[in-house]
Amino acid sequence: MESPRIRRALISVSDKLGLADFAHGLEACGVEIYSTGGTRQYLLSQGVEVRDVATYTGFPELMGGRLKTLHPKVFGGILARRHRPEDMEALEEHGMHAFGLVAVNLYPFEATISRPGTTVEEAIEQIDIGGPSLIRAAAKNHRDVTVVTRPEQYSQVLSEVEVRGGTTAETRRRLAADAFALTAVYDRAIAGYFAGELGEGPFPANLNLAFRRKCELRYGENPHQKAALYSQIGLRGPSLVAARQLNGKELSYNNLLDLDSALAIVRGFADPAVAVIKHNNPCGAATAETLSVAAQKALDGDPLSAFGSVLAFNRTVDVATAEVLAAPGLFVEAIVAPDYAAAAVGILTTRPKWKTNVRLMQVGKLDAPPFPTHYRHIDGGLLLQDADVLPDLEHHWKVVTQAQPDASQWDELRFAWALVRAVKSNAIVLSQDRALCGVGAGQMSRVDSVEIAIRKAAARAAGSVLASDAFFPFPDSIQQAAAAGIAAIIQPGGSRNDDEVIAACNQFHLPMVFTERRHFKH
Predict the structure, then answer these.
(1) How far is CA 181 from the centre of its chain?
(2) Domain limits for position 351
(3) Cβ-contact 26, 161 below 8 angstroms
(4) Does a structural domain hold residue 454?
(5) Residue 103 near residue 11, CB atoms below 8 Å
(6) Which residues is 51 bridged to in the sheet?
(7) Cα(475)–Cα(141) distance, rounded to whole angstroms?
(8) Which of 127, 208, 303, 419 allows an S-S link to 188, with CB 3.0 to 4.6 Å?
(9) Closest by CA position to 67, among listed 41, 40, 37
């Protein structure tokens, strides 16, 4: 059912973007515009004829603007059901006007609380009361009323009003759904703020999460699965979801998972760093004095697995690095970096065979690693935990063997320990010259992970260091490591058989460090 012609609109917005053109367009269609406070003054300054809500209701704005639109003559005009004679008779009896369009957006509560130093009193003043009430009333009566809550909606609504005199039933339903989503998100933000003020921390009694769909994906992990990408409302700072795509096909579900994991690795390093990810595990990673050298070292970690991988960089991709990536025989699915030199983009999008397909994602300057809450869905609920991004405290580390790591081994142990937390458990990492050279990931037995890592490293295992995400329950893995020529080991410790493991290291003159912190990743 089509709506009757829109004759009156109520407009009250904080965000004035596009408002003047929208209001002029409505005015040109013969729509009477009612408004209050700052919105009315703005429209008048733009040459729009605006009727004062206070004059219409006969009740002035009070309490510094806190009380403006909360009046029966406003809400009656929004809520009246046009197909019910008794509602229309009530309008006439009490001198109420019917409003066919309500354009409202809300006080910037989230922007206010995100500013450093915002007081509770300042936050409270940005809690909108009239706005959500108007939006919900109009959305409830969307059979008859068009509710507009975002500047992006102005164009379609105005084009329909120009052609039809009103909006279609489908448009009004969609706008109503958007309106209820907006007020839900707004209330979640307020509830979350007060939970924080009450000291509930990252695990409040009632968890309210707000996300907005950014795009639908071609499919999920497999072609028969549907998928979509959502962005967390209110989240700020560099992230893959907010990144700008400079080239290539649309990102897939698996691309997004792998790029996110790769980005998490490189943003933890101060030196130029590169990570190569395949199936959500690193098959290469390195740091060096220059990004191009780090890139070559990372790709050399496991060249076979690097084919069809995704890469992350913590520096601007320069020409020298692009030359490394454009080498014959290498195929790259996607790359994420803070930025790209223009000439580097030219190389990556014109030289390799994959030039037109590679996804180049520009994420912006990387700040220090965030300390977010990690969410994981299980059937019927969510698991929450602190993300495993806190830096390890080296003053807790201790050498438990007779042999001591030398200075170069200490540097290598730090690098390997930083990487092992990014590998699926049971996780074993071998590194040499600050480059990953062998990985054993996701095995049910730690012995199997050690065997796989050594096999992947091949001749490079000799002289490398080994990092394990959790303790060794038996000395068998130490025996494997010693036979492969591994030079030092770092692990959390904490097994009841630690003495046997330490004794095995002493037998083979292997230095071993206990970190007293485990890094399981399931």
Answers:
(1) 19
(2) 238-362
(3) yes
(4) yes
(5) yes
(6) 34
(7) 72
(8) 208
(9) 37
Q: Does one domain contain both 357 and 456? A: no
Question: Mean pLDDT score of the chain, rounded to an integer?
Answer: 90
pLDDT tens-digit map of 166-179: 999 999 999 999 99
Residue 67 · residue 129 · CB < 8 Å:
no
Q: Quickly count: other Cβ atoms within 10 Å of residue 108's Cβ.
A: 13
Question: Are the C-beta atoms of residues 102 and 10 closer than 8 Å to each other?
Answer: yes
Give pLDDT, residue 3: 59
Helix (H) or strand (E) holding 76: helix 72-79
Instruction: Evaluate whether 438 touches 464 at the Cβ level (below 8 Å).
Output: yes
> Out of 24, 140, 249, 355, which one is annotated catalytic?
140
Number of domains in the chain: 3
Whether 369 has a pLDDT exceeding 60, the answer reads no
pLDDT, tens only, 119-148: 888 888 888 888 899 999 999 999 999 999
Q: Based on the fold, state whether residues 338 and 433 are members of the same structural domain.
A: no
- Whether residue 71 lies in the annotated active site: no
Tokens of 380: 């019927």
For the question of residue 94 being annotated catalytic, the response is no
Would you say residue 368 has pLDDT above 70? no
The kind and range of the H/E element at 54 are helix 53-57
Any idea what the CATH number is for the domain that residue 455 is in?
Answer: 3.40.140.20
Note whether 55 and 188 are same-domain residues: yes
Closest CA to 425 of 467, 377, 369: 467
Do 342 and 423 reside in the same domain of the chain? no
Instruction: Write down the catalytic residue from 16, 249, 279, 355.
Output: 279
First to last CA, the chain: 52
The per-residue pLDDT for range 215-251, each reduced to its tens digit, is 999 999 999 999 999 988 767 778 888 899 999 989 9
